[in-house]
């Protein structure tokens, strides 16, 4: 574990933990992939925000979820750290990163939605 990792307020979670948060605590998934990647398949009810939108606080549709768990979904799980830290700085209380990202999710044949929403 890195020195920075000791103080990180984000947590990597498994697909099972993510499903539990979504079903039991109304967690919202923030998919940080490109619009095109998002349209090809995303976790149901995800909000698509790019890392630059998060960094520049262009997150109006996410504001109402500040007190709910937020799961950052990236292509492979690695890319979610910086956007997750940005969300914490913006006042989100419970921010998680989906371990292995969407590739792990789809690799287990978990449900995906296609199109804009």
TrEMBL record:
InterPro entries: GlpE_sulfurtransferase (IPR050229), Rhodanese-like_dom (IPR001763), Rhodanese-like_dom_sf (IPR036873). It holds the Pfam family Rhodanese. Residues 23-114 form the Rhodanese domain. PROSITE patterns: RHODANESE_3. CDD domains: RHOD. This is Rhodanese-like protein.
């Amino acid at each position: 574990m890195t020195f920075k990792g000791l103080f990180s307020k984000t947590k990597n979670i498994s697909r099972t933990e993510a499903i539990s948060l979504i079903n039991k605590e109304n967690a919202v998934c923030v998919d940080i992939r490109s619009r095109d990647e998002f349209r090809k398949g995303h976790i149901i009810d995800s909000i698509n925000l790019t890392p630059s939108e998060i960094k520049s606080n262009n997150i109006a549709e996410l504001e109402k979820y500040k007190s709910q768990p937020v799961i950052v979904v990236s292509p492979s799980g690695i890319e979610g750290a910086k956007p997750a830290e940005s969300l914490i700085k913006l006042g989100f209380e419970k921010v998680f990163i989906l371990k292995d990202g969407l590739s792990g999710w789809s690799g287990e044949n978990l449900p995906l939605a296609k199109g804009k929403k």
